[in-house]
Write a structure and sequence with these properties.
Bound molecules: biliverdine IX alpha
Largest sheet: 7 strands, antiparallel
Radius of gyration: 19 Å
Number of strands: 9
Structural class: alpha+beta
Mean pLDDT: 90
Strand order of the largest sheet: 1-2-3-4-5-6-8
Oligomer: single chain
Low-confidence stretches: 1-22
Helix content: 25-40%
Shape: globular
Order of helices and strands: HHEEEEEEHHEEHHHHHE
């Protein structure tokens, strides 16, 4: 459907960027504009401005994905640089029925930068928004990590947490991947997504890019290995328990869906480490030794935002 991989993709970075934009525009011809087109465009423009950016080779087979419904238009873009291992954006434009934005940005393991995460899903009946800079380390257990990356942007998080109220209970396991500035909300309308959520998306992405611009690589082998394992655990969680899995399976069929998840969306899950899902999440081991199919073994929890305004994790007593 879009971003045809041709010989120009090996041209200079600036030309690549222009080409991507042109192809992205061409994608839109013939179909109504997607709810998240401008989100993806903003992310692509922001990353293009960085030095030494190039398209990620793994995009290849995913550039022309057509959904089984014959209607939904998929756009996938991914970049890498000396700092970014994986800067990838995906949108699905299925008109009024379904709109999806999924963005993940992982730095290289030399950096302990959080993972940029935008997971937006909209149907005619519901809207789901998760936006965060997912921490590599638990911010309660490592106050220095919280201080390094979250103290400065806490006011931004608090501002949006007021504009975009907490979206009620969610899969309890998910909370360990979220930071004190996570936005988890169920907007009432697509207008709210286009306005408040778009502003939050731009501000969070700018904040992450600003952190990345300032970040210096570690040369401590232990730290680098620890960062890499944290990325791997995160990707393992998402590749295995992503709420979008069922839908992606329906849209693309099992073989393509699996490749899309492991090689594009959560690229790194098969290459950053050798531990298995059950090594990281043994509570999901079923009686026969296989992974329990349910997304959650704990169930839903956190009816209210479990972080205070100062970024302290303080869930309601019965949810501890
Ligand atoms: C719903 N997505 C959700 C929910 C969360 C997230 C918290 C609410 C339902 C729940 O409680 O689980 C997001 N969960 C996350 C994130 C992490 C996590 C970001 O653990 C970890 C960091 N989602 C996608 C893609 C699609 C998608 C690609 O990433 C679709 C193609 C859809 N998200 C999607 C759907 C739902 C959802 C369909 C509703 C399904 C449900 O409520 O179970």
């Amino acid at each position: 459907v879009c971003l045809h991989g041709d010989k120009h993709t090996r041209a200079r970075n600036v030309e690549i960027a222009a080409l991507n934009r042109k192809d992205l525009d061409a994608c839109g011809s013939g179909v109504a504009e997607g709810l998240f087109d401008k989100f993806l465009e903003y992310a692509v423009r922001a990353v293009e401005q960085r030095a030494d950016i190039s398209p990620l080779p793994c995009q290849g087979e995913f550039q022309n994905m057509v959904a089984a419904d014959g209607q939904s238009v998929v756009k996938n873009v991914a970049f890498e640089s000396t700092k970014f291992r994986l800067f990838r954006c995906a949108t699905i434009n299925g008109g009024d029925n379904m709109q999806v934005l999924n963005v993940a940005i992982c730095a290289r393991p030399e950096y302990d930068l959080p993972i940029f995460c935008a997971d937006f899903f909209s149907t005619a009946r519901m809207n789901i928004v998760v936006l965060d800079l997912n921490p590599l380390y638990n911010t309660e257990q490592r106050p220095e990590y919280k201080e390094k990356y979250y103290s400065r942007i806490l006011p931004l998080g608090n501002k949006y947490a007021e504009l975009l109220p907490w979206g009620d209970k969610l899969t309890a396991e998910s909370i360990q991947f979220f930071s004190p500035i996570v936005l988890w909300t169920r907007p009432a309308s697509r207008e709210e997504i286009q306005e408040t959520v778009f502003r939050a998306f731009k501000d969070y992405l700018d904040a992450w890019l600003d952190m990345a611009d300032k970040a210096n690589p570690s040369n401590d082998a232990y730290e680098i290995a620890e960062n890499q394992e944290s990325h791997h655990r995160y990707l393992m969680w998402r590749a295995t328990k992503d709420p979008g899995r069922y839908l992606l399976m329906r849209l693309f069929g099992e073989p393509l869906c699996e490749r899309y998840i492991t090689e594009f969306l959560f690229n790194g899950v098969n290459t950053l480490g050798t531990k298995t899902f059950l090594d990281y999440f043994p509570e999901y081991r079923g009686v026969d030794g296989s992974i329990i199919k349910q997304r959650s073994v704990v169930g839903k929890a956190y009816a209210e935002r479990p972080w205070n305004k100062d970024g302290t994790f303080a869930p309601m007593l019965h949810e501890v």
